[in-house]
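ok here's Ribosomal protein S19:
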Amino acid sequence: MPRRSIWKGSFVDAFLLRMKKKRDLLLSRKIWSRRSSISPEFVDCSVLIYNGKTPVRCKITEGKVGHKFGEFASTRRRRPSRTNKGKGKKGKK
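and the structure:
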C-alpha cells in the first residue's frame, strides 16, 4: 500500500489541529475527519468518530497513534453467520 511521503508529514485536519491546542475541548468530541492521523496529543481522550450513520465512541490509546481515525469506526454492518435451523424449504414437499 502506498504511503504518504515523509517530507509531507501525516495528515491532520485543520479542525483537529485547533482542537489539539485546547485539550479540554477534545473530551467526547465528534470527529467527521476519518482520514486524519491520530497524533500523540489525542492519547487518553474519548472521541466520537462518525461512521457514515452514527458516531462511534472510541478511546484513544498509545497503540493507536499513527493510525487513521477511520480504522476504529467500522462502516459495514456485521451479520451473524447463518446456522442451519431445521430443514427449511428443501425438506418440505
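+1. The mean pLDDT is 80.
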